[in-house]
Amino acid sequence: MDIIAFYLPQFHPTTHNNEWWGEGFTEWTNVAKAKPLFPGHYQPKIPADLGFYDLRMPEIKEKQAQLAKEAGITGFCYYHYWFGNGQQELELPFNQVVESGKPNFPFCLCWANESWYRKFWNKDGNVADKQDLAIQTYPGADDNIKHFLSLKKAFSDNRYIRINGKLLFVIYKPLLFEGVEDFMAQWRSLAKEHGLGDFFFAAYTTDISNDRTRIEKLGFDSIISCRIRRYKKRGFKWLTRKIISYLTNTPERYNYKKVYPTLIGEEEKQENIYPTLVPNWDHTPRSGNHGYLFTNSTPELFEKHVENVLYEVKRKERNNQICFLKSWNEWGEGNYVEPDLKYGKGYLNAIKTAINKVYHNENLADK
Asked: Using CA atoms, how far apart are residues 123 and 359, in angstroms rounded to an integer?
């Protein structure tokens, strides 16, 4: 069984972030200035053991890997930003991991192929205007080669995660990638040409029910299903929350106790569809009252969620006993398992306890 955690490499200053948001900006800027927006709202969320870290520091990455191993997480899936024509963002932390050979912890990549904007909301909570920051482009075959060669050293690393012997590469927005079929075919050919074998392409989606058929037709090997946005679907309950949010000038709220049982469904029982663990969600450090969030998430409830997912994962063939975690450290969206001041290592311990129940306790393993 493998739990692969999405990993955000945003926590270090960059030239463009300094230009766009101000000198020294990182995700911690939003996290630290967050405020509670209604009674009982847990904000700001403050890191504990690792502090407000800088990912340029190798000892931080070592400690992260140690904490992940102790919890039973088996690898990091680093978000990777390639906008075309060689333009990259936030590549430094991952490049350091590859170049240094440390930490000795498995990794793979998720190409977060979407444009970056500065967003402006109107009084109804909808995006009223967007300012372009970095636009995702797909220049074609030559750029695909340049992209592949920029990552060849990582793909050649024995820490790189493989499924069925193939290099795992995740594409975050598969249905927005015009030419994705040609891209995958070309990269498969390049991998063989350079003695790397083959790729195992996984598509990420937050709407597995509607997206599954279209994604499978594109030729992906698997789908990663994350149901974190299903609550934004239009309907009576959605409209009620929108009205309450508007009248009270507070973000939309969803109780985690009701949320977590729905984060896995029938589709995730299929061999080639991998479920996602979601400890929490709170986008308000970035979007304020225009965001939405889960309330009352606790390590105890998260542990039950992990158990639910792992019982389904355990029923699959060994090579497909895989799930993802969203996320290791997305503090600005409230989905992280790194220690914080309120719960300490509670969410990490929840993962470890759930793994022990499902995989190492004979009385529970056959549930």
From this structure: 49
Q: Specify the amino acid at residue 263.
A: L
Q: Is the pLDDT of residue 332 over 60?
A: yes
Of the chain, the percentage scoring pLDDT greater than 90 comes to 85
CATH at 79 = 3.20.20.80
Report pLDDT digits (tens) over 145-157: 999 999 999 999 9
- Alpha carbon distance 228, 4 (integer Å): 17
Write the pLDDT tens digit of every residue in 254-266.
Answer: 999 999 999 999 9
CA distances in angstroms from 348 to 209, 212, 298, 303, 330, listed in the order given: 30, 31, 12, 9, 15
How many C-beta neighbours within 10 Å does residue 38 have?
15
Tell me the CA end-to-end span of the chain in Å, nearest whole number: 17
Residue 302 · residue 350 · CB < 8 Å? yes
What is the domain range of residue 182? Answer: 2-365
Structural tokens at position 312: 């389904």
Work out how many domains the chain is built from and give that number. 1
